[in-house]
Amino acid sequence: MNEATPHDQNAPSDPPVGDSPTPSRRSVLWTAGAAGLGIGALGGQQAAAADPRAVGATETTGAAPTSRRAATMIGVPFEGRSTVRVGIVGLGQRGGSMIDSFLALPGVRVVALCDVVRAKAERAARKVTAAGQPAPALYTKDDQDFERLCQRSDLDFVYVATPWDSHFAMARVAMLQGKHVGVECPAAMELSQLWELVDVSERTRRHCVQLENCAYGRNEMRVLRMAHAGLFGELLHGAGAYIHDLRALMFSPTYYEGPWRRRWHTRLRGDLYPNHGFAPVANYMDVNRGDRAVRVTTFGSPSLGLAAYREEHMPPGDPSWKESYIESDMSISLVQTAKGRVIRLEHNVSNPHPYSRLNILGGTKGVFEDYPPRVYLEPDRNDHQWGDFADYADWDHWLWKEHANPPGGHGGMDYIMLFRLIQCMRLGLVPDFDVYDAATWTAPLPLSHASIKANGAPQEIPDFTHGLWKKPRPGIDSPKPAGD
User: Fold this and answer.
1) Alpha carbon distance 36, 16 (integer Å)
2) DSSP string, 414-452
3) How far apart are CA 140 and CA 123, in angstroms?
4) Is residue 380's pLDDT more than 90?
5) d(Cα 233, Cα 362) in Å, to the nearest integer?
6) DSSP symbol at 476
7) Do residues 291 and 264 touch, judged by C-beta distance below 8 A?
8) Residue 64: its pLDDT value, please?
9) CB atoms within 10 A of CB 442
10) How high is the mean pLDDT of the chain?
11) Strands 331-337 and 208-210
12) How much is the pLDDT for 85?
């Protein structure tokens, strides 16, 4: 499996240096602009009140800001359509590559592209026309142009692949303008923002999905089906991680559009990127579908790796010398679920280490561990020796059986993820995951920071579902649609 390239993108970002996770000026402008837009056309549905709910939850209590004012989005299907019309915001490393997967999918038309770097939008537009589609509209005027893209009446879905601090505002605007939206990791940077995404999704009846490609990895989907079939017995524990040496990329003058990703290491101490590790294990354990993540406690190592790399590789006078890094080189979190299960999350992008997402699942009948993949399950094994995971290939998900060699990055899981999303949209199916999953998978980001600052004190993970997690329901392990 290929390494998971970071979800980096375009718009130049220069967040303030310091301990407080204060939003950048651009984030404030984006949020303010979103509040003024109101709710646009909702495909014939009655628009809810346009005034945004005042969000009062703190970053550490996990309490809901107010009682629910709209119906849940759990179990709500997309509207069926023969063609999904897509707008893409952010065409850097991630968005610039994901457009290839969109163009490879049946029933997709790329209608509009947005990036503050016009050359990147033009390069992506050439891919669209080379694929035989009409030239897309370009939005490159300024970092507010995404709002004008979202206002188009000929879009069904907006894909957001920009720097992290813009994800919340862009997803919010897209839904308020009547579009379903898919956001790269993480969904937002603050707990109150996660609550507001839930609220806006419910009020507008638009889906906000976290485009978590690692949940669609071949190994992850095989383990998911094995777990649901009972091969691991009663589930007890799991682990996931994002361990990826990004030092050279974070200090590169060209890989990211500005130093936005490195600057987050001057602002937060916790797990900056929990989704890749958390989402697959949460799926194994049916989190939000019969179980719930209830609390997280985090400890962090000293922050030494980026400063050491800078000392060795960056010349005097480089702007990075003004930065003070506080983000723990290694953060280790423990998440406990309502059923008492334990999930370990790790994050380290600042030290030498081979790539790993850990991807571990254990139960009363055995255990799976990835990197490299190996399995030990009774009654197949009783010799204290790891078994070959390839022996369980019959448990592959139907998506991987149909697309044994999918195109695209990260071993094909990018394509599998988008194929399934577009399939759900075209056939009018319930998405594999929803805004409640996006919020849950992202919540350890702000809460791990709060836990480290509180010397490891547990932090409550909100119940974004308002109690509906207790009801089992399908997720990524959904059956193949009939007749498709």
Assistant:
1) 25
2) HHHHHHHHHHHHHHTPPPSS-HHHHHHHHTHHHHHHHHH
3) 13
4) yes
5) 9
6) T
7) no
8) 66
9) 30
10) 88
11) unpaired
12) 98
Return the structure tokens found at 239. Answer: 């682990």
Question: CA nearest 210: which of 291, 289, 296, 273?
Answer: 273
Note the helical H segments in 205-338.
218-228, 247-251, 260-263, 275-284, 305-313
Token output for 4: 């998971």
In this structure, what token pair is assigned to residue 188? 């937002």
Enumerate the H helices of 36-117 as residue ranges: 95-104
**CB atoms < 10 A from the CB of 19, how many?**
13
Q: What is the radius of gyration, based on Cα positions, of the chain?
A: 21
Q: Around 326, how many Cα atoms within 13 Å sit in the side-chain half-sphere?
A: 14
| Most distant CA pair in the chain, distance | 65
Q: Could you check whether the bond before residue 474 is cis, i.e. omega within 30 degrees of 0? A: no
Of 35, 469, 465, 89, nearest in space to 290 by CA: 469
Nearest residue to 475 via CA among 199, 280, 232:
280
Alpha-carbon gap, residue 202 to 175, rounded angstroms: 10
pLDDT at residue 6 greater than cutoff 80: no
CA 348 – CA 425 distance, rounded (Å): 35
In the numeric block, the tokens 């649609």 are attached to: 481
Residue with tokens 């770097």, as numbered in its chain: 117
CB 364 within 8 A of CB 376: no
The secondary structure of the chain in percent helix, strand, coil, rounded to multiples of 5, reads 35, 15, 50
CA trace torsion 138, 141, 146, 148 (10° rounding) = -80
What are 216's two structure tokens? 């669609």
Res 268 pLDDT > 70: yes
Distance CA 14, CA 208 (A): 26
Amino acid at 196: E
Structure token pair of residue 109 = 């038309």
* Rounded Cα–Cα distance for residues 288 and 215 (Å): 15
User: Any residues with CB less than 8 A from the CB of 383 and at least 6 apart, and which?
Assistant: none
pLDDT digits (tens, 9 = 90+) for 75-125: 999 999 999 999 999 999 899 999 999 999 999 999 999 999 999 999 999
Give the pLDDT mean for 446-459: 98
Confidence tier at 407 by pLDDT (50, 70, 90): confident
Let me know: does 4 contact 220? Beta carbons within 8 Å.
no
| Residue 446 CB contacts under 8 Å (≥ 6 apart), including other chains | 21, 59, 189, 190, 191, 268, 270
